[in-house]
Amino acid sequence: MHPWQADHLLKQDWCQQLVQQNALHDLGEAGERWLPTSSSRSLYSPSNRDMVKFSLSVRLTNSVRTLSVKEAKRGMRLARLAQTPRWQELQARYPTFRVMQEDGWAGLRSADFTLQEESLLVLRDNLLFSQPDSQTNVLVTLTQAEPDGGDSLLASAVRRLAARLNLPLQQAAFCWLDAYCQHVLLPLFSTEADYGLVLLAHQQNILVEMQQDLPVGMLYRDCQGSGFTQSALPWLAEIGEAEAENSFSEQQLLRYFPYYLLVNSSLAVTAALAAAGFDSEENLMVRVRDALSALRTCAKNTLCLDYVLDSPHWHCKGNFFCYLHDHNENTIVDPAVIYFDFVNPLHQGVIHGATR
Question: Which E.C. number(s) belong to this protein (predicted)?
Answer without folding.
Answer: 6.3.2.-
